[in-house]
User: Fold this.
Amino acid sequence: MKVIIVGCDLVGVELASLLDSEENQVTVLDVDTDKFERLPPTFKGEALLGDGTDADDLTRAGVGEADAFVALTDEDNRNILAAQLAKHIYAVPRVLCRINDPARSELYEELGLETFNPTRIVAHLLRQKLVG
Amino acid sequence: MYIVIVGGGRAGHSLAKTLLAEGHEVLVVDKGDRVCEEINEEMGSICVAGDGCDTNILLEAGVQRADMFVALTGSDEDNLVACQLAKHRFHVPRTAARVNNPGHEALFKKVGIDITVSSINLVLEQIEHGVPTHFLTHLVTLEDARLEIVQVKIPEGAVVVGRMVGQVDLPSGALITLLLRSGQPPTRPEEDTVLQAGDEVLVVTNRESEEALRRALTQGAEGEGPPTAG
Assistant:
């Protein structure tokens, strides 16, 4: 499976490494090349300097052939723009969008975007640990 | 009308002023405290300091009773999210957004933002109109039908000059709908209408055929490549 990951922060690196080790074709996009140093030396995928909300950069990353697209930067609105481009303009079959703000996450879930909200996920996990 | 504007920069500032002068009720939302202070000093208390993508700020701005919502920040992602919130959370009847990166305009339209304004595309259109050798001008894009209406000026030396409309080898699906001839009222061209240099025609076409259409009507003119045989 060809996967594009936008945002090479800790979660992005972790996800890229996992998918790469499972023989997927992974492309990571970030506007800061320093972040690529976090990728493990074993990483066989592609790390591209580029903006996940820019049509030319997305094309260079091969968005037209991608099976999945994950918007993982730490900015909600950038993720929302990138993910909607991938879904509505490039028709990527599977698009996941990280949205930290629960209100925004709910809205885009209703609008048919597959979102995940780390704020809520972590809060629920912690609550479970505390009160069972 | 009650109009909420997100972004109090130069565009938001002038729009607020114009709308106020026309008697509308206006509220501006801007992240910058300084920007807000300036607007409030100049136009009365009409600016809320805060993030236009934050539902609480939007509630404070009374977006739920707005007739129109306009996002004018320099950031496309902020304009997109603000408009989608206004439209789907607060059911504002009309939303408008500035598009800074022309590559985003298609998405903005696709997700239902009613009015999109891309300054770069506007400038390009103006230049297109102004450049005399550019014989084809976009007039209207009909998104849903994937059609567009273009205006083509028949240049001096084009192979179609002196030919009848029915003889012109138009790409399939293209339709000449109106003929504008200097000093005459607009007419609907017939099959036997003879084209003259300087005529302007309005043509409905699909986007894919645009280049073929331009070639069909302007080939032979200077800068438009050699005429084909026949």
Observations:
- Chain B is about 30% helix and 25% strand.
